[in-house]
Design brief:
The chain is an alpha/beta fold. It contains nine helices and 13 strands. The structure holds uridine-5'-diphosphate. It holds the Pfam family GDP_Man_Dehyd.
Length: 328
């Protein structure tokens, strides 16, 4: 049985990856420090014999007994609100955490896939974004802690690949959505759906002309799965190229939820990228992958999930008190 370590396993993407690798017959070691992750996302797996959970912070030395075939490094805060609240942890998990996991991969002779992001392109001046684009990132802006940690993550991964001959994979993940996103993480999809469910107006930041391209989680997981098992060690964009303005997206949510909410406008956060759309030519050619789930279908499933949550979840403003996590 192949053994895989998944970090950030109790998070949104991590938990879906756990499900996928369990389904494929792997032995899954799930690791999370539970700062932004939630055990409820993986509790259905606890009874399985080929699943175990380690409550551990990967910025500290990581030890896993026995053999290991694969590592997926998905631990990181991943929403602008989160990395504003826990900037130092965000930097540490991308930098120190990645270093620890690369070291673990080296001693175990395991293949490692790291979760990079479209944020490494910053506020992009090339559109759509190809993997060759170097990006336009403000190192000292509020998003710098995430963007630069992820850029460092890519660099150190390629250094281990070239210097130590480690088998590495780099996925650049574009906006992904689906069940198990955190309702209060500030990202646009949970924010809009939460507002609709509470009967509040939908808050569009700026004039809403900025664009995003949203990928349903099952498609994202399929792309990551194929990349891990491929022979390709350069970065690959995995995302849905179907682009929409945030203003039009808000109107779609109003229709989807059948509510009579208004759309209201709030100031645009600093360094909020104006456009984002993946060029997925590489993923198509190398992995034979492209997204299959339409936004209408994916959003319907996502809305059903949020509707099924206990009502008090809707009114929780904070996930938890984050302030202690910035201590060294
Ligand atoms: N956004 C918005 N209203 C909200 C939350 C987000 O208009 O209540 C905008 C945000 O400014 C950005 C886009 O939606 O332009 C996507 O934001 P998100 O935080 O989901 O992801 P990211 O900016 O990292 O792509």
């Amino acid at each position: 049985m192949k053994k895989i370590l998944i970090t950030g396993a109790a998070g949104f993407l991590g938990s879906h990856l756990c499900d996928r690798f369990i389904k494929e017959g792997y032995y899954v070691i799930a690791m999370d420090n539970l700062i932004t992750g939630d055990l409820r996302n993986i509790e259905h797996l606890f009874k399985l014999e080929n699943f175990e959970f380690y409550h551990h912070d990967v910025t500290k030395f990581v030890n896993v007994p026995g053999k290991l075939d694969y590592i997926l490094h998905f631990a990181s805060p991943a929403s602008p609100i989160d990395y504003l609240k826990i900037p130092i942890q965000t930097l540490k998990v991308g930098a120190l955490g990645t270093h620890n996991l690369l070291g673990l991969a080296k001693v175990k002779n395991a293949r490692i896939l790291i979760a990079s992001t479209s944020e490494i392109y910053g506020d992009p001046l090339v559109h759509p974004q190809t993997e060759e684009y170097y990006g336009n990132v403000n190192t000292i802006g509020p998003r710098g802690v995430y963007d630069e940690a992820k850029r460092f993550m890519e660099s150190i991964t390629m250094a281990y690949n070239r210097f130590h001959g480690l088998e590495t994979r780099i996925v650049r993940i574009f906006n992904t959505y689906g069940p198990r996103m955190r309702l209060n993480d500030g990202r646009v999809i949970p924010a809009f759906i939460g507002q609709a469910l509470r009967g509040e107006d939908l808050t569009v930041f700026g004039d809403g002309s900025q664009t995003r391209s949203f990928c349903y989680v099952d498609d994202e997981v399929e792309g990551i799965y194929r990349l891990l098992l491929s022979d390709y060690d350069m970065p690959v964009n995995i995302g849905n190229p179907h682009e929409i303005t945030i203003k039009d997206f808000a109107e779609e949510i109003v229709k989807l939820t059948g509510t009579d909410q208004k759309v209201i406008y709030k100031p645009l956060p600093q360094d909020d990228p104006m456009q984002r759309q993946p060029d997925i030519t590489k993923a198509k050619e190398i992995l034979g992958w492209e997204p299959k789930v339409s936004r209408a279908e994916g959003m319907k499933k996502t809305y059903e999930y949020f509707k099924s949550l206990p009502e008090d979840e809707l009114y929780k403003k904070e996930h938890k008190d984050f302030k202690d996590y910035n201590r060294v």
